[in-house]
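Example record

The entry below shows one chain as it appears in the dataset: sequence first, then structure tokens.
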Amino acid sequence: MFLNSIFQNPERVEKLMRIMQHSFIPLLEGAIKYTIPLTIITFSIGLIFAFLTAISRIFGNKLFQYIARFYVSLFRGTPLLVQLFIIFYGLPTIGLTIDPLPSAIIGFSLNIGAYTSEIIRAAILSISKVQWEAAYSVGMTRSQALRRIILPQAARVSIPPLSNSFIGLVKDTSLASLILVTEMFRRAQEIAATNYEFLFVYCISALIYWIICFILSIIQGKVEDRLERHIGRSGGIT
């Protein structure tokens, strides 16, 4: 019914086509300049936090374990939007003002670090103790065994869930629009506010998000297929 009402009105169709023409490129620019770089930067920083947290929980003393557990619990137990608001809107009340983009980078990095730390920790723990014992038997230290034997195998195990987290982060970056980062969805809000075609403009932005995630899903599938073939040739991971 909705589509019929649109196509039965040529002027309406012409207006929507003009909006499509004038909004698609700005939305795509928002994705290229902010959405994709924000995803890559925060995911990279988050992986550093995740690795340090996972190592602290597995090998650290009780103090480091408690700190790591508290960090994971805090950021997994509170909404990402609330975390962003605390950083951008809350901290200025105590004299600490951070610009929109750095606020988004801090918030997303800490959040993704907490979630992916559990993925990395589980991947490391999934490697058989026999691998550790074999490394120790040839004179490796724990750090050498971790770096040369355990982590390469754990990386193969963790790549599929980490890929899912990366794709999810692409969509989560839309929350940065609420702290004034001019990423793609913020651009969509600005464009829709000028022509009042909120549904149509938001659907265009949703289409671009879907295209990005679809491409990433294809890449993820190829990487996973390659890993499966590699594992099959090596006889599996023990």
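Notes for this example: DSSP finds nine helices and no strands in the chain. The two ends are 58 Å apart (CA to CA).
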